[in-house]
Design a protein that fits this description.
Order of helices and strands: EHEHEHEEEEEEEEEEEEHEHEHHH
CATH class of the largest domain: Alpha Beta
Number of domains: 3
CATH topology of the largest domain: Rossmann fold
Number of strands: 17
Largest sheet: 6 strands, antiparallel
Distance between the termini: 14 Å
CATH architecture of the largest domain: 3-Layer(aba) Sandwich
Number of helices: 8
Structural class: alpha+beta
Length: 329
Amino acid sequence: MEKLGAIREVPIFDRGQIVADLHREFRAEGRDTLVVAGTHAEISQLTEAIRQDRKERGELGVGHSFDRYVSLQWTAAQKQELSSYESGLILQFHRDTKLAKRHESLEVVRVGPESVVARKENGEEVTVSPKQTRAFSVYERQPIEIATCDSLMLTANRRGSEFKATNGELVKVKSLDGGAIHLEDGRTLPANYHEFTHGYAVTAHRSQGKTVDTVIISADAMKKELFYVAASRGRSEIAVVTSDREQLRESVGVSTMRQSAIELARKQLSAHNVERSAGVDLVTGVNRSAGQQIGDQHSSVPTHAPEPEKTPHAGLDRDLGGLGLGLGH
């Protein structure tokens, strides 16, 4: 990739604009383009840069503010702890109950000593007890600007008779009408569907299963398996933008598989099972039978982020070489 000029080393403060410029160039050639970044913070920065570039060139319509719901990924124990709640949080029911119907959302208005008081869309206030926590998930409401021609990513499955959606699906906005978001594929997001975000940049985990004409990887560090996942999303071209070429090269040469195996081996050693663990190499501390487990240094995802997907790892050295990435050792 370096010999082909696919890797661009740029100042970190210019990276957002460089990625936005590349994104525009590829779009002008009629290519579907996806940006893959190493962190959620960078995804936000790159998304802002790309949308601002599109606004300045008149590619996006007038922006309108919408509410998006971000799952807090609370466990059952967290949902039963009343001190976890605060006003403004959203309780979205995923099954019919006496309090609310499936997909109905209630806003927390106050927290009592034994229950949570939430308000329905019609203004009615209901009392939710800890015993009902299995019927709903907890979300945080966040504003998001959406304009005609924007790219969105749907972040929750929906299998209704009138609307179907797949978590991670990329869509484009055709028009906005009276608070409704109409998509280019003919669907309209229901009024009670708030699980979406901009779809210009994603993590390597989120990029799995997606195929586009061109992929832009923006990162200073990314493990081998994740880099492979990101690089293999593009059908025709890959562009890498980094502010530290050497650090990226070194990180891509490191597999997450060995780290996970070592962690497991250490647990076994601490349990004094070394003699019985025939699969543990006493020199490296690696449990050979655990070698298929994969860790992820980029798992520092906010608690509301969707669950990470498994990363393919079989034949990575062969596949990376076949792609001619030129980044590993």
